[in-house]
Design goal:
Structural class of chain B: alpha/beta
Number of strands of chain B: 14
Distance between the termini of chain A: 36 Å
Strand content of chain A: under 5%
Oligomer: heterodimer
Helix content of chain B: 25-40%
Number of strands of chain A: 0
Shape of chain B: elongated
CATH architecture of the largest domain in chain B: 3-Layer(aba) Sandwich
Order of helices and strands of chain A: HHHHHHHHHHHH
Shape of chain A: elongated
Low-confidence stretches of chain B: 1-8, 321-332
Order of helices and strands of chain B: EEEHEEHEHHHEHEHEEHEHEEHEHH
CATH topology of the largest domain in chain B: Rossmann fold
Structural class of chain A: mainly alpha
Strand content of chain B: 25-35%
Helix content of chain A: over 70%
Chain lengths: 280, 332
């Protein structure tokens, strides 16, 4: 076998002889973006081959929307039709949270595989292996948001915000999902196993979604619980999505929801990159 | 590096007093290493000796707890990103993406290394051809055999055309034929000017491939030299005899002493004798000596010294598999 001879010959001339000291000390921003997009390409390939990754964002929106609407509709709003404007934004926030929870679990599973050893050994930006799946997961949030809204409409929901309002609410759901996913990404980089990520994520997800105004009006709750519900960022997202979907109104709540998203990313993105880098 | 003649740059790898601890275990405990440009340097040791841990520190995959290292004169701790551009790493467990096909894997790594799309495809196809993987190019890695995975893994390490390649146990778990192919591939790499640092558990692999060998035991370097230098410390081969009548062992030992002039080792099996030979051809003399005394044997094998025998000679203890689990954990 006369493998590789030409290739590697060029190697040595190409790299060593120009001087190892002249090589860049860190990846440029353009390289970082391109590497992250390549990682996103990898993640979409993976999704296509493991369609079960889409179960949580396809079946859950259908099931939960129907289930919650028919069970709680009469009790809370008097009728299913009156409940839909409340519950659809709630389910949107909930499915976005569940979808981004899976981001952390899948990252942890992925990091245990051999290919991550290679990623670490390559001269690529440390953020790329984390940002890639995050970008690809936009597809999952979009799927979840679209299906939830469509299910609602099929059940008789007529959003007052019109097309623009619905589109804005849909977009906010995706932005919120993507931002909150960095919390779970960080969990994925610090936890010891995928099961641990799942356990901790459940512990975070349930209080955040149920102790919010996603399913019931906050006014029906005891005072001490109302305080928590009001500071819960999920409540802000839910209210903001309701304002957009039902009124088509760009309210202060929308602003607060966005500020919350930016804050979460600003804290957890650097934390994730740091703890991923340390795992080497 | 035409303008740079400082001695450090003649060395591909320099490591000084490397240390890595995992809790109480000192996995790597003060190892010095110098790998010259263009050579194959073998690191030989049993499971858990600290080979993989050492390699991972040099490849920026694990932080060092002590000591320092340079790759082509570039400090590993201070400039990890530069070091990553100089080193291709092929791990003990093939580090390719199970969810992708072989072709997609090479495309992925090519793109990550900054090669533009068309060129990444060309480079990938080229490597698939060179490594005999064209037929399996569009199969998912899950369907690959161990040997094919290793070849793809090595191909992936070559995309960036690094001047230095780390091979962590490149043939562990491969069948003899695939092993031979892997050796050929490694020889071709070296012929084209690559420097290779490889770890292995097999003495014959180090013997076949490496210009110089360091023997590692429990985080320490216990010997270093060419294959011949190491073997001269151990004897070049062993004659393993089994006598038909174990009662004649004493007489047989006398014959061996007279013919070889060395003390044979009795094995636990009845009638088993191991004779260290300075030269494999002396085996015939021993067999003739036994025949003359009418001492009958059931089997006779001449073998190269094993890692165990090298260890016995160098360290006075057998190559134990201590710390295997710790090293496995370290890999994570």
């Amino acid at each position: 076998m006369t493998l590789l001879s030409t290739t590697v010959e060029e190697t040595v001339t190409a790299k060593t002889l120009t001087g190892a000291q002249d090589l860049p000390a860190r990846p440029s921003i353009a390289e970082t973006v391109s590497q992250s997009l390549t990682m996103a390409w990898r993640a979409t390939k993976k999704m296509r081959r493991n369609p079960e990754q889409f179960f949580d964002v396809t079946i859950q929106p259908l099931l939960f929307t129907a289930m919650f609407a028919y069970i709680f509709g009469g009790a809370i709003s008097g009728s299913v039709a009156d409940y839909l404007p409340i519950i659809i934004p709630g389910i949107l926030a909930q499915t976005a949270l569940t979808a981004c929870m899976a981001t952390g679990i899948q990252l942890r599973e992925d990091m245990d595989k051999g290919v991550f050893d290679r990623f670490k050994s390559l001269p690529i930006a440390r953020i790329a292996p984390l940002a890639g799946p995050a970008i690809a997961d936009l597809l999952r949030y979009a799927t979840a948001a679209t299906l939830t809204i469509l299910t609602g409409i099929a059940m008789g929901y007529r959003p007052g915000g019109g097309f623009v309002g619905v589109f804005a609410g849909w977009l906010l759901t995706i932005v919120a999902g993507w931002s909150l996913a960095w919390i779970f990404t960080w969990l994925g980089t610090v936890a010891r196993s995928a099961q641990a990520v799942q356990g901790i994520s459940m512990m975070i997800m349930f209080p955040l979604t149920f102790l919010s105004n996603a399913f019931v009006p906050a006014e029906t709750l005891p005072g001490w619980l109302q305080t928590f519900v009001k500071i819960n960022p999920v409540s802000h997202v839910v209210t903001a999505v309701r304002d957009l979907l039902n009124e088509g109104a760009l309210t202060a709540q929308v602003g607060w929801a966005l500020v919350g998203c930016v804050a979460v990313v600003a804290i957890f993105l650097p934390l994730s990159v740091r703890s991923y880098g340390r795992k080497m | 590096m035409t303008n740079n003649t400082s001695p450090t740059h003649e060395l591909a790898v320099t490591a000084h007093d490397l240390v890595k601890t995992f809790g109480d275990l000192r996995a790597v405990d003060g190892i010095d290493l110098e790998v010259r440009r263009g050579e194959v340097f073998g690191v030989l040791g049993p499971n858990g000796a600290g080979k993989t841990t050492m390699l991972q520190m040099l490849a920026t995959l694990l932080p060092m707890d002590g000591g320092d290292a340079q790759i082509f004169g570039v400090d590993v701790k201070r400039h990890p990103h530069v070091v990553r551009q100089l080193v291709g790493v092929t791990g003990q467990y093939a580090s390719v993406d199970e969810n992708l096909t072989a072709r997609e894997n090479l495309y992925l790594f090519g793109r990550l290394l900054g090669i533009e799309k068309t060129q990444a495809r060309v480079t990938g196809d080229d490597l698939l051809g060179r490594f005999g993987l064209e037929d399996a190019a569009d199969k998912q890695i899950a369907q690959f055999s161990g040997g094919m995975r290793r070849r793809l893994d090595l191909a992936a390490s070559l995309i960036a055309r690094p001047p230095l390649i780390f091979l962590d146990e490149p043939t562990t778990g491969l069948d003899p034929r695939t092993r031979g192919q892997m050796w050929d591939t490694i020889r071709d790499l070296v012929a084209s000017g690559c420097t290779v640092l490889l770890t292995t558990q097999y003495l014959d692999e180090a013997d076949q491939l490496a210009d110089r060998i360091a023997v590692i035991d429990r985080g320490h370097k216990v010997a270093e030299g060419t294959s011949d230098q190491l073997k001269s410390q151990v004897g070049s081969s062993t004659l393993q005899l089994r006598l038909l009548d174990p009662a004649q062992t004493g007489q047989a030992v006398d014959v061996v002493r007279r013919v070889v002039g060395d003390e044979p080792v009795l094995t636990p099996e009845a009638g088993g004798i191991n004779v260290p030979l300075p030269d494999a051809n002396r085996a015939a003399d021993v067999l003739i000596g036994l025949r003359e005394q009418e001492l009958l044997i059931t089997s006779a094998t001449v073998q190269k010294p094993t890692l165990d025998e090298v260890f016995m000679a160098l360290t006075g203890h057998a190559a134990e598999e201590n710390g295997t689990n710790n090293e496995m954990e370290a890999v994570r």
